Recover the amino acids of this structure.
């Protein structure tokens, strides 16, 4: 029996590197979609927010959650609304109405959210770079922080020492987990270039897309700068050059947030009206 998230689908698009024009022969086929849940889930005691395939390559969101996250400027969901041409895999008339209203999701929040996603990529890149260049030599032990053993464990000299130990031990576990589950493709990039250039490519893409949206109001999913971004993935920047470039682009993003013509906040009332109308129409039409 076909699951309702497929049966009630209103929009499905190609996502990830395939949609950005950055795919390699090894790239996964990713997709992202929107559905209207069944009548029971829409009106009853149970709810539905999203379905994710094993591995996370294919995600389908309930309309309500999709709109809520898009209003927050979530980059992945904004891209879903602004995907064009053959990268739109399926669209129902309800999905077409959603796309027709995509401009209402653009606001100054977009700059902040794209910047936050970029910083997340940079943080991962810096953490992995540290593990590559200066890996921890041994597991932290309470005694290294002045703790003495007792019958239940250890007594720390103060709460600051205990917090420091717990923080270092958490980082140690993260390092072991990274080393044990290290992505082989990423490992090859790190060995060749000294850092994860795929993280770097996504960092650059997010910063440039955030700037474009704030400056022009356009969301260019299929990247006009794809060749440049591929060069980044191929080691265009040294690690210090990447950090310097990123700092400059973050500063530029902040400047654009102060001068953009986009509204400070998206029109939540209009978005709510759209969601209500679409779901009421789906009920009247017997779509769900």
């Amino acid at each position: 029996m076909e699951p309702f998230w497929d049966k009630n689908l209103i929009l499905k698009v190609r996502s990830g590197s395939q949609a950005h024009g950055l795919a390699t022969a090894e790239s996964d086929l990713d997709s992202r979609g929107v559905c209207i849940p069944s009548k029971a889930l829409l009106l009853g005691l149970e709810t539905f927010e999203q379905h994710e395939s094993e591995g996370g390559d294919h995600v389908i969101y309930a309309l309500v959650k999709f709109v809520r996250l898009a209003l927050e400027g979530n980059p992945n969901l904004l891209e879903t609304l602004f995907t064009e041409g053959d990268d739109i895999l399926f669209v129902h008339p309800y999905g077409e109405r959603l796309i027709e209203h995509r401009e209402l999701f653009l606001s100054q929040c977009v700059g902040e959210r794209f910047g936050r996603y970029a910083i997340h990529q940079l943080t991962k890149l810096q953490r992995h770079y540290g593990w590559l260049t200066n890996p921890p030599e041994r597991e932290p032990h309470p005694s290294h922080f002045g703790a003495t053993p007792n019958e239940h464990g250890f007594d720390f000299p103060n709460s600051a020492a205990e917090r420091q130990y717990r923080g270092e031990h958490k980082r140690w576990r993260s390092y072991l987990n990274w080393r044990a589950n290290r992505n082989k493709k990423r490992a090859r990039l790190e060995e060749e270039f000294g850092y994860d250039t795929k993280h770097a490519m996504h960092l650059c893409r997010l910063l440039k897309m955030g700037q474009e949206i704030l400056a022009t109001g356009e969301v260019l999913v299929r990247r006009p700068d794809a060749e440049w971004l591929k060069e980044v993935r191929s080691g265009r920047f040294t690690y210090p050059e990447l950090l310097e470039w990123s700092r400059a682009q973050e500063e530029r993003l902040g400047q654009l947030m102060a001068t953009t013509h986009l509204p400070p906040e998206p029109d939540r009332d209009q978005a709510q009206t759209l969601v209500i109308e679409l779901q009421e129409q789906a009920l009247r039409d017997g779509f769900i």
User: Anything to note?
Assistant: The chain has two domains: 4-106+266-284, 109-259. Residues 109-133 form the longest helix (25 residues). The chain has a mean pLDDT of 94.
